[in-house]
Amino acid sequence: MIKAKPVYLKHEVSPRDRIMGFVFLLLGLFVLLVFNRHFSADTVTTFAMTPGGITRGMMSDWLIQTNRTLWICGILLFLIGAYQFVFGFGRRSNLILILVSLIFVFAFTVYVAANKMLNLAGLLASALSMAVPIILGGFCGILCERAGVVNIAIEGMMLMGAMLGSVVGSTTKNIWLGLAAAMLGGGILALVHAWLSIKYKINQIVSGTVINIFSTGMTSYISSMYLQNFPNLNKTPRFPSVAIPGLADIPFIGPIIFDNSLFVYGMFLLLILLQFGLFKTRWGLRLRAVGEHPKAADTLGINVFKTRYMAVILGGLLAGFAGAYFSLGSVGRFDEGMTSGKGFIGLAAMIFGNWIPFRTMLAGILFGFADSLSSSVSILGSSIPGQFINMLPYLVTIVVLAGVVGSSSGPAASGTPYEKE
Amino acid sequence: MSALEKDSEQKKNEAKQAGEIFLQELSRKPSNDSSFFSKLWSAIQIPFLAIFSGLFLGALIIVFTSPDVYEAFSKGLGTGLKAVFSVVGNAYGALFAGAFGSPSKIMEALRTGEKIDRVFKPISQSLVETTPYLLSGLALALGFRAVVFNVGGEGQIYVGGTAAAFVGFAFADLPRAIHLPLSVLVGIIAGGIWGFIPGWLKAKTGSHEVINTIMLNYIALRLVEFLLTGPMTKAGSGGMPISNSVQESAKIPLIFKKPLTLHWGFLFALLMAVLIWFFLFKTKWGFNLQMAGANKHAAKYAGLNIGIWTVLGMTISGALNGLCGANQVLGVTYTMGLGVSAGYGFDSIALALLANNNPLGCILSALLFGLLRTGSRNMMSNTGIPLDIVSIVQAFILMFIAAPAIIRTVYHLRAKKTQAPAAVNVSGWGGK
């Protein structure tokens, strides 16, 4: 049933905008009253602008006068909030929301690191690397759901990929074979998911749960049966960081983006491929048609089942790649449950990013930033517990899904099995 | 007739038809043309064969990952096959002995009257392990009946357990008759709130409960982690996420003496199963709950407010999971830690579907899961096969239950005429 949305004229302010404006006002007050409570005029926040252990693309530290900066941030937030509340930014609301979030997060870091030093570049670099599996998981979700198959098994596929990558990488001492095995593992689980949900038309959440339980059990089984007894099976070489000549020497940005392992570059490459493929090619149009209206797509001669199989398996390969990041890209071994819910956050990033690869990447980076910020905050010994910062991405996802901030609408036929008549 | 009127006319007809089908389904008389046993067999064949196939595939995995088997096959085919049977026999034998106790020792003890408590320890432990599965399984089954998919069991168990633990240790000098029920009640309420949130969001905004419950799982995990390392932490635990022990007056008493850990929570869970069954099938509310989920149009024409029933279904489901958490904390661990839920929230999806979402059936499938889990510990210590094999078996069981067509193909069974509809289909994640 379609409920008609109230239409607001240009000069009117919708209740949603008013709520947003009110929240912005509160954030401004929060910065002014809570963050900027007891800093004298000569308090200084120091941001280091080069990640630790990096020798190229150096940049000198950034000294910020805490008190004055917090005043500016707070007043800025307050003014934006007031304008939003009274006049409303209309269609630019979402852009303003991002701006406000950035200002608030900046104010927060300035407050947390007052009188101390925070490595801003290190923070961003680790945010990016923590975001990689989330973003890749989100891409997996996009591929599957754009074709009409809900995939909550991303977590399980990643876990299997991480385990296989580590085992094959350790036995062959070849990282590329390890990567191939990881992707294959994810792909095979995806094939099972596709088979269960497309051929047998079972509930796709149940099918995903089957794979998650199986994968958690299987990887833990192999781990405690073999990997713990034979440490040589679980000691894989890792993908090294490769600095891109020239670009890596750019101050600040260079060491953060252009001095990373294959996974970060792969993620950017996949982003471009996926964004272009989904929205600018015939392949993408067909895939989306199958996810939006399979019957119409079928009438036009697109093979719905084949398209769905293809999308889910490609998604599985992606999830396997994301899993390889944990063992082959990050620590060089497999630990039980090492994906720690990143697959589910990937799903959240997908929703937050409105099923669009580029936005999903931004959401993933935001979630990765929350992760790395929470660990920095606990190192700095702030009074705000890191767990609450960790909680934010999940809260934001719920809020976004509820339609309070922005709007999210997935592919129409996502989750429904297709019956050919 | 305008397109809009046509549309509403069509919807009306659909609703009418759906309502008739629903009534037919409810008033369908059992056919009398087959004997009792064939009827019984047709009712249990799918679950039975699913369990059997799951155990069989589990055995295959044990065989294929056992170094002994490969070694034996290198000596010859005969020794190899012998090794296959002995590896599987040992593993499942140890599983059985760990779950039930050894039959010969039980007979011996019953005859001589000695060490009676010792020989019944495994079965008592299995029943202790059955309890959380049963409670969480009931939560899922009730949810499925109301057509909400509660994947948030883990989070609800966490908050329920934490709340119960807090009341359990924070109030001293209360008589047990007040302290224990109060702790349990607070656990139930906490779990209920954690279930209410996604239910309310679904009813109000249409956002799908699956993704919301997953998110709430992580929020609960972080929240509980914060509470257990911060305000609720045990003195001198050195930053480990563990709470103070609950007071003696808040512990669920044991049924027997000490080596037998079976506590009254088990019987309470059985009672809950009967209550939920009664609620679902013998009361008007239970009927409404199921109808609101099963057929929105019919329910709307019957004058039900679907949103309220969705919220109610999620809330009761969450409350049962909260009870599960409280039961674990007050009856088993006596302290809240992050290990309080060993995946009950997810495993019980399989459990509920295995029981066809029937609360009384949940007792049997919870028993199976409890026996498997307890037996697997013995299997691990005796044969070195990791207890994670149980998760793998459970995954297979869930797969076969959810896709009975696989079972029918493998065992050449005829399809039943009336097929139960799939529990819940996700159609998008909702949102406005």
TrEMBL record, chain A:
Its main location: membrane. The keyword Ligase does not apply. The keyword Transmembrane applies. It is a multi-pass membrane protein. The chain crosses the membrane at residues 21-39, 69-88, 95-114, 120-142, 149-169, 175-198, 205-227, 262-279, 309-328, 348-370, 391-413. CDD domains: TM_PBP1_transp_TpRbsC_like. Keywords: Cell membrane, Membrane, Transmembrane, Transmembrane helix. GO terms for cellular component: plasma membrane. One of its GO terms (molecular function) is transmembrane transporter activity. It is found in: Cell membrane. This is ABC-type uncharacterized transport system, permease component. It comes from Flexilinea flocculi.
Automatic annotation (TrEMBL), chain B:
This is ABC-type uncharacterized transport system, permease component. It is a multi-pass membrane protein. Pfam families: BPD_transp_2. It is found in: Cell membrane. InterPro entries: ABC_transp_permease. One of its GO terms (molecular function) is transmembrane transporter activity. Keywords: Cell membrane, Membrane, Transmembrane, Transmembrane helix. One of its GO terms (cellular component) is plasma membrane. The chain crosses the membrane at residues 40-63, 83-101, 133-151, 157-175, 182-201, 262-281, 302-329, 349-372, 384-407.
